[in-house]
From TrEMBL:
<dbReference type="GO" id="GO:0006189">
    <property type="term" value="P:'de novo' IMP biosynthetic process"/>
</dbReference>
<keyword id="KW-0547">Nucleotide-binding</keyword>
<protein>
    <recommendedName>
        <fullName>Phosphoribosylaminoimidazole-succinocarboxamide synthase, chloroplastic</fullName>
        <ecNumber>6.3.2.6</ecNumber>
    </recommendedName>
</protein>
<dbReference type="GO" id="GO:0005524">
    <property type="term" value="F:ATP binding"/>
</dbReference>
<keyword id="KW-0436">Ligase</keyword>
<keyword id="KW-0658">Purine biosynthesis</keyword>
<feature type="compositionally biased region" description="Low complexity">
    <location>
        <begin position="19"/>
        <end position="29"/>
    </location>
</feature>
<comment type="similarity">
    <text>Belongs to the SAICAR synthetase family.</text>
</comment>
<dbReference type="InterPro" id="IPR028923">
    <property type="entry name" value="SAICAR_synt/ADE2_N"/>
</dbReference>
<feature type="domain" description="SAICAR synthetase/ADE2 N-terminal">
    <location>
        <begin position="105"/>
        <end position="350"/>
    </location>
</feature>
<keyword id="KW-0067">ATP-binding</keyword>
<dbReference type="InterPro" id="IPR018236">
    <property type="entry name" value="SAICAR_synthetase_CS"/>
</dbReference>
<feature type="region of interest" description="Disordered">
    <location>
        <begin position="1"/>
        <end position="67"/>
    </location>
</feature>
<dbReference type="GO" id="GO:0004639">
    <property type="term" value="F:phosphoribosylaminoimidazolesuccinocarboxamide synthase activity"/>
</dbReference>
<feature type="compositionally biased region" description="Low complexity">
    <location>
        <begin position="39"/>
        <end position="67"/>
    </location>
</feature>
<dbReference type="GO" id="GO:0009570">
    <property type="term" value="C:chloroplast stroma"/>
</dbReference>
<comment type="pathway">
    <text>Purine metabolism; IMP biosynthesis via de novo pathway; 5-amino-1-(5-phospho-D-ribosyl)imidazole-4-carboxamide from 5-amino-1-(5-phospho-D-ribosyl)imidazole-4-carboxylate: step 1/2.</text>
</comment>
Length: 387
C-alpha cells in the first residue's frame, strides 16, 4: 500500500446535504445531519486491558504484556483493519460538497476548512513521520479524533480548548484563533529516532538542548530526572528546535504568552502521565499547540495526547526491557518509524518502500488499543463503505 493509494475521498456520510453558512450564530454541529453526530465516544467497555495487567501484576515472574491481554479482540481488530485497507480516508474535498466551506490547508494528517468564525478539521487516515506521508492506516483518523476529544474534555481544568463540537467521527469543529508558531514539546525520557528527537541529538553530543542542560552518561530510553520542554518552530518542511529566549527575542511569542503556554504544557503532560500510568501506560513525550482568541484567551488546539503526537510505552515491561537494552513496547507511530529507519533513509530517499500490510494493521491495532486502554471504552469500528 502506498501513501498515494486512492482511498475513499468522501467517507464522511451525508456531507453533500450539509449547509454550513459562512456566518451563523448557531453552533456548527446543529447544521450537520443527525446521523453524523457523535458523543465523546463509544460504548462503555469493561476495563479489560488495564485491569488484566493489574491483576497479573505483582506475582513471581514477568507480567504478560498489556498488548497481549485480549488476543481475541486484537485478532478481530486486525481482521477489520485488513478489510478496510482499501477504504482509508486519504483525501477530502468538503469545500466542493458543503456550501460555505473554504479549504484553508491540507496538513500531513488533517484537512482544515474555514467557515466564518469556525474551523472544520477533518482527521484523515494519512500516516506521517520524517516530515512526509508514509502510508494510510485503517481507522486512524477516527481514533485520533476520538482520543483528542476525550483528552480535551478531561483537561479543561488545566486549560480551555478550541473544540466546539464533533459532528462526525473524523471531524472536529473548532473556534478560530491566532495560532502561535511554536510547538510545545514536552519530554520525560531520552528517546526517539527522528532528527529532532532527544536521543538523536544527545547521542550526537548535545548537552544543552532547547535551553535544557543534559548530564553525561545517559542511555537511550532512560527516564529524565524531571520533565523538560523542548519547543520547536512550526516550519513547513521541518520543525526547528529553539530555546525559550530565541522564541521571545525573535518575537514569535511575548514572554507573558510563552510563560503561560509553557506552564499549561507542563501541567498537561504531568496530568497525562498520571492518567496513562493509572491505565498501565507511560506517556513518554508529546507536543502541544496553542492559539489565542480575540479576547486574549490562550487555548489548547489541534490534538492532545494522541499516538500521533505522543509516545506511549507499556509500563509493566519498561524496566525489564530497559535493563536488557531492548526497545520498550511502544503504542504509537514509533513502531512505524523504526521500520522505515531500518529499511531506507526516510529523510533523503525519493521513493520509500511500501509499508507491509502486517505493519499497517498492527499499527491500526495499537492505535485502537491505546484509545480503549486510556478511555476504558470500546472503539466503534466503522462499517466499510464504498463510493
Amino acid at each position: 500500500m502506498s501513501p498515494s493509494a486512492p482511498p475513499s475521498a468522501l467517507r464522511l456520510r451525508g456531507l453533500p446535504k450539509v449547509s454550513l453558512p459562512a456566518s451563523s450564530s448557531s453552533p456548527p454541529s446543529a447544521r450537520f445531519p443527525h446521523h453524523l453526530s457523535m458523543s465523546a465516544s463509544s460504548s462503555r467497555r469493561p476495563p479489560p486491558l488495564a485491569a488484566t495487567a493489574a491483576a497479573a501484576g505483582t506475582g513471581s515472574g514477568a507480567s504478560p504484556s498489556l498488548l497481549a491481554a485480549d488476543p481475541g479482540h486484537r485478532d478481530a481488530v486486525l481482521l477489520a483493519a485488513r478489510g478496510a485497507m482499501a477504504n482509508c480516508l486519504g483525501e477530502t474535498s468538503l469545500h466542493l460538497a458543503v456550501p460555505g466551506l473554504r479549504l484553508a490547508a491540507k496538513g500531513k494528517v488533517r484537512d482544515v476548512y474555514e467557515s466564518g468564525e469556525h474551523l472544520v478539521l477533518v482527521t484523515t487516515d494519512r500516516q506521517s513521520a520524517f516530515d512526509r506521508v508514509l502510508a494510510s492506516i485503517p481507522f486512524k483518523g477516527q481514533v485520533l479524533n476520538e482520543t483528542s476529544l476525550w483528552w480535551f474534555d478531561r483537561t479543561r481544568h488545566i486549560t480551555p480548548n478550541a473544540v466546539v463540537s464533533s459532528p462526525d467521527k473524523n471531524v472536529t469543529i473548532a473556534k478560530r484563533c491566532s495560532v502561535f508558531p511554536v510547538e510545545f514539546v514536552v519530554r520525560g525520557y531520552v528517546t526517539g529516532s527522528t532528527d529532532t528527537s532527544l536521543w538523536t541529538v544527545y547521542n550526537k553530543g548535545a548537552r544543552n538542548y532547547c535551553g535544557n542542560v543534559l548530564r553525561d552518561g545517559m542511555v537511550k530510553n532512560q527516564k529524565l530526572s524531571a520533565n523538560i520542554l523542548t519547543p520547536t518552530t512550526k516550519a513547513a518542511d521541518h520543525d526547528v528546535p529553539v530555546t525559550p529566549e530565541e522564541i521571545i527575542n525573535s518575537g514569535l511569542m511575548s514572554k507573558e504568552d510563552f510563560d503561560e503556554a509553557r506552564s499549561k504544557a507542563l501541567s498537561l503532560f504531568a496530568y497525562g502521565q498520571e492518567v496513562a500510568l493509572e491505565n498501565g501506560l507511560i506517556l513518554v513525550d508529546t507536543k502541544y499547540e496553542f492559539g489565542k482568541t480575540a479576547d486574549g484567551t490562550i487555548m489548547l488546539i489541534d490534538e492532545v495526547h494522541t499516538p500521533d503526537s505522543s509516545r506511549y510505552w507499556i509500563a509493566d515491561s519498561y524496566e525489564e526491557r530497559f535493563s536488557s537494552g531492548l526497545e520498550p513496547e511502544n503504542v504509537d507511530k514509533e513502531f512505524l518509524r523504526l521500520w522505515f529507519k531500518n529499511n531506507c533513509n526516510p529523510y533523503e530517499d525519493a521513493v520509500l518502500p511500501e509499508a507491509p500490510e502486517e505493519l499497517v494493521c498492527e499499527l491500526a491495532w495499537r492505535y485502537i488499543f491505546l484509545f480503549e486502554t486510556i478511555t476504558n471504552t470500546k472503539f466503534e469500528i466503522p462499517k466499510t463503505q464504498c463510493h
